[in-house]
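Data deposition worksheet. Section B asks for the primary sequence of the deposited chain exactly as it was used as input, without tags or linkers unless they were present during the calculation. Section C holds the resulting structure in token form. Section D is free text for depositor observations; keep each observation to a single sentence. Incomplete worksheets are returned to the depositor.
Section A, Depositor: J.P.
Section B:
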Amino acid sequence: MMWTVGDSFTSTTPGADLQTTQDTARQVLGLRIGELVEVRSQAEILATLDERGELESLPFMPEMLQFCGRRFRVAKLALKLCDTITWTGMHRMRNAVHLEGTRCDGQAHGDCQAGCNIYWKEAWLRRVPDGEPELAPVPRCTLAMLSAATRKTPDCLDNGAARYSCQATELLRAAPESIPSWDGRQYVHDVRSGNANAMDMARTIAIGLFNEYQDASRRRLPAPLRLRSGGRYPFIEGRLDKTPQQALDLQPGELVRVKSLEEIVATLDVNNTNRGMSFDGEMVRFCGREFRVLRRVEQIIDEQTGEMIRFKNPCIVLEDVTCVGAYHRQCPRGIYPYWREIWLERVESSATDHPASASSRSDLV
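Section C:
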């Protein structure tokens, strides 16, 4: 039996009224990877939202309206997500998927450039081809309410900076249930759903067990008995007190090569960061490979506070380079990693085909 995103449905919204829960349950489609779906109309989606512009605490953002009426294939089932707000591990998401080619452009959120992979509740989608015509729904949320919901309450910090609300800032309300690493069902669900293959999952589990042992060894074993000083795999061991920088002024479309791991480690401090931006283990797989620059990133929303963070030094996002969660329990969020220009080098323009692959995101600065 294939695991589907609609299995074991329960409402996770505190105080949700019974009618809303029943309506949502009836709209669970049990989608599978590769299925063709159509994003419902604006009116249909607004009819599923509460006065906060949310369904089961997950915001429907104005940036998503451009996809209404369009068709996409299901890329991943959003069964779980890694917490990048308070770093409490993995959380369970219900009745949601990621669609191919749908990322947030940040236009309603101060032009945030994070390019987050959008979460789609199944209630906002329909299978293709559609069957019987449906009655026009009565919206409970308006476009004005949807626009107002892009700001937190209060909408300003003490310094006057705007506070934004988006799917990324509200993920812990939308997915409040934490998933411990020892819960084996999550790994079975990931493989059955097609989110991960069995070999990749076995490798992820083995590495996870090793890293938990390493964490425990740092707490309980004397230094001489630790493996690689108790470091986590893959072993990244920055040693600098002050990190260097390099400005290449890379532009979208330029071909670059990710430097070798040794060259990148030589730019990192003891926390494996370069001027506050971490080089994550998920990024190691891209070392030595060539990619095109997707864009320069100068500002993103802080998921914890909702404040817009403006980088002193822009970082780079590369085409087709997203997180595969190999060291994070096969998390399907598909976040972009951010690259310091000192970790990249220009490649002379050529007719080389665009390489494709995936990775994880580094910490925010």
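Section D:
Confidence is low (pLDDT under 50) at residues 1-18, 351-365.
Residues 196-230 form one domain.
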